[in-house]
Amino acid sequence: MSYFETRARSVLLRVAAGKTLTEISEEKRQPRLSTLRTWILDRPTFVAAYLKARRVAVEDMAAEVVALADQLAPGATPAEVSRQKLRIEARKWAIARMEAENAELADQTPAAPAATPPMYV
Fold first, then answer.
1. Residue 96: pLDDT band by 50, 70, 90 thresholds?
2. Which of 26, 30, 103, 107 has most Cβ atoms within 10 angstroms of its Cβ?
3. Domain range holding 65?
4. Is 120 within a domain?
């Protein structure tokens, strides 16, 4: 599938909403996973926007962690407490993983050409 700014923006909006590249590639009318990975390898402008979209997703996940902690009612049963802890820990793990991947990808990616307009998510 060819690279088009509108198609890339559609992918980036989904990433910002918390979807993985695998999930996006499984949707109808979305690029295949191999295509998305090629964009990451070959298109510095896409990578810069992808990293911004992932930062948005991380912020949303962090807010969800706080909300999960706040949802636990006083007098919750040990099973309810355990369930919330598991949900929180899973999200914290995902956040840490995404942040590490973002840092690694940012370090490996050359700067986008200055003449290229920024892609906003």
1. very high
2. 30
3. 5-108
4. no
For the entire predicted model, the pTM comes to: 0.78
> What number of other Cβ atoms are within 10 A of residue 107's Cβ?
7
Count the alpha carbons within 13 Å of 25 in the hemisphere toward its beta carbon: 12
Judge whether 9 lies within some domain: yes
DSSP string, 5-56: HHHHHHHHHHHHTT--HHHHHTSTTS--HHHHHHHHHH-HHHHHHHHHHHHH
Segment 40-45 shows an average pLDDT of 91
Angstrom CA distances, 87 to 23, 43, 52, 56, 64, stand at 20, 35, 25, 20, 10
Is residue 115 in some structural domain? Answer: no
Alpha carbon of 64 to those of 34, 95, 112: distances in Å?
30, 11, 32
